[in-house]
Amino acid sequence: MTSYLNIPLLIASLFFANAHLKAQEQLVPLHANNSLISPSTGKPPVSARTASLPALTLPFFEDFSYAPLSPYPRADYWLDSNVFINHTFPVAPPSIGVATFDGLNKNGYPYNLYASPTSSGPADKLTSRPINLLKNGPAYYAVSDSIYLSFYYQARGRGSDPSPADSLSLDFYKPRQKKWQTVWRAKGYSPATADSLFHLVMLPIKDTACFDSLFQFRFRSRATLSGSLDHWHVDYIRIDKNRSYAEAAIEDDAFQYMSTPYLKNYSTMPYRQYQPSEMATSLNNYIRNNDVNTRNTSYQYTVFDNSGLPVNTYNGGNANVLPYITNGLHQVPQHATPAIPFAFPSPMSGINVFTIKHVISTNPDACRQNDTMWQTQRFTDYFAYDDGTAEQAYTLLSTTGSKYAIRYTLNVADTIRALRIYFDPTKDGPSILNSGFDIMVWNSGPGGPGSLLYSDNNVNHHPVYLQGKYNLMPVYFLSSCLILQPGTYYFGIRQNTNTGLNIGFDKNTNHSDALFFDTGSGWTQSSLRGSLMINPVMGCHQELLPVGVEEHRASSGMTLFPNPTQNNIVITTDDASSEPMLLSIVSAVGQTIYSSTYTPGETLNVSHLPNGIYFIYLSGGKSITNPQKLLIAR
Questions:
Q1: Angle 142-143-144 (CA atoms, 0-180°, nearest 5)?
Q2: Per-position DSSP letters for 565-630, written without gaps between them
Q3: How confident is the model at residue 24 (pLDDT cuts 50, 70, 90)?
Q4: 120 by DSSP, 3-state: which?
Q5: Buried-most residue among 306, 403, 419, 557 (CB within 10 A)?
Q6: How confident is the model over 97-138, as pLDDT tens digits?
């Protein structure tokens, strides 16, 4: 029996116990970037592809609005590709897309994995192609032309704060002197600060040594070289004549972020599980007016199917967009929260990728490229809350035996065959690879995971770090397919290591209500805003499915040629499928070592794999194949 005198002490103890549980989960910086491409793809250096291009001319404008389509700087403007072009790290950028500077190289890996956390060294740089500042037609440029270079920059954003030893610098190149000169520098913060603003920098070009046909500029950063650390984000770079410190804001309307998904619960879901009730009723758009005056702007979106044919068009008409500087983002409902007056077709017969083109239009407009935004809505064979990119990594401080679980709901009976999990490489990689994790599935219980349905503790999976494509996530197969009836389930892992397993964490979508962890004291809902990158892959073989479950058409298998092979194979399915499918290569001991999408008939390069026996898994499209053995012998 508790004395009333002890109630305050009891309340305090409960508070601190709960705080202790919350403290068991932590976000840490990434040591790699799953949105970048490895050297194995043979991507040529940007400089090699642009050496023969003529010098650029004024006006120069770059806002990186192609970020949803490519993580690298455009080759016709830039000579290197160290920075990460993205729309997920910045907070409130002038337009969608920025160049992010950090401690990772162009392949998404640390410059020096073992660099001290307190050290700082030369990291990313972004160098322009030559720009003609010598002549404007028959006339020569002069100081009196009042040429300015301007840009916006932000420290941290959704990344980490640069320290006082870190910096972002801007250099001008003087061709005749063959000399780079630093003309601007910003240092990191002390102490760390939550500065989330983009700051405008305007620099006049007055040095006559810069008035040359081969003028260049470059940004450089200093950072801790062991990971995705010490972030700077650069946007809206402009060079033009007849400018001044006091010039008015630019006449430009722009998208600021990607629109929200067309699904109300997920970013991606299996096509078998899709029903019209999964559709969101409206979107959230993020449109800003970068001018100081109100601008009359139109908005519309068009949805295209797999074949590029339009399936729906929404026209929001015209509306006045107030200046962002005084009113923030555009709030008129037919533009900011447009309705979704349609549903994707149901049932779907296979993987579908719908492309959405969002367009705003006003006149005049100084930058047309940020008036169009491309979005995709995928229906594949897995569930996901995350947007496919990680800004940080999620880990539990209490390690061995700790469990991670994330909630998903099945609309129809199905089978789960695997989990897609993005593990961030760490300094402790060898110890993690020597001890791994078990895949687990739980029923839904009161306020979180309930009874255990499945555990493959005899398999002991190990984290795999894949290279070679955009946003690549390994697939970890269950030892046997699990049949699930409609309802809510929790999918996750139990770790068998005393080293933290850093799992990718998307900070742009918030589904903390679906994430639970257990470090030995029972299940606790996550308090961290974001989405954990654990995606259940649904759908096994036809014969394993419950009666009445619609599934792929069964296929007797696939053909690998040549087999044995040395470097390349071509895979065809028995039903001659030509649709993109999910490909996984599993080692003889059951470890998934490669995962990607694959279109049957294409050449698959396996030269990076050592000699040995492997198993090829292929599913999706209109067929499911049985795994086939592949022998690599050189």
A1: 90
A2: BSSEEEEEETT---S-EEEEEEETTS-EEEEEEE-TTSEEE-TTSPSEEEEEEEEETTEE---EEE
A3: confident
A4: coil
A5: 419
A6: 999 999 999 888 889 988 998 899 999 999 999 999 999 989
- Beta-carbon contacts of 328 under 8 Å, excluding residues fewer than 6 positions away, are 288
Cα torsion 391, 396, 399, 401: sign: negative
Going by C-alpha positions, the residue among 594, 595, 592 that lies closest to residue 581 is 595
CB 400 within 8 A of CB 495: yes
Say whether pLDDT at 318 is over 80: yes
**pLDDT at position 70, please?**
86
Quick one: fold of 31-246?
Jelly Rolls (2.60.120)
Give Cα 322 to chain centroid, integer Å: 31
Indicate the pairing of strand 268-270 with strand 372-380. parallel
Tokens of 479: 């030892």
Q: What DSSP assignment string belongs to 290-326?
A: -SSS-EEEEEEEEEE-TTS-EEEEEEEEEEEE-BHHH
pTM: 0.80
- Contact (CB, 8 A) for 87 and 235: no
Check if the beta carbon of residue 99 is closer than 8 Å to that of residue 232.
Answer: no
Does 553-632 match 254-380 at the fold level? yes
What DSSP character marks residue 104? B
- Give counts: helices (H), strands (E), the chain: 5, 41
CATH tag for 254-380 (out of 2.70.170, 2.60.40, 1.10.286, 1.10.490): 2.60.40
Protein fold of 553-632: Immunoglobulin-like (2.60.40)
φ, ψ at 279 (rounded to 5°): -70, 140
CATH class of 392-544: mainly beta
For the chain, give every domain's residue range. 31-246, 254-380, 392-544, 553-632
Residues 6+ apart with CB under 8 A from 619: 381, 417, 539, 552, 581, 582, 625
CA–CA separation, 455 and 444 (whole Å): 15
- At residue 62's C-alpha, the angle toward residues 57 and 66, to 5°, is 130
Neighbours of 114 (CB within 10 A): 8
Buried b (16+ CB within 10 A) or exposed e, 45-81: ebeeebeeeeebebebbbbbbbbbebbbbebebbbbb
pLDDT score of 192 = 55
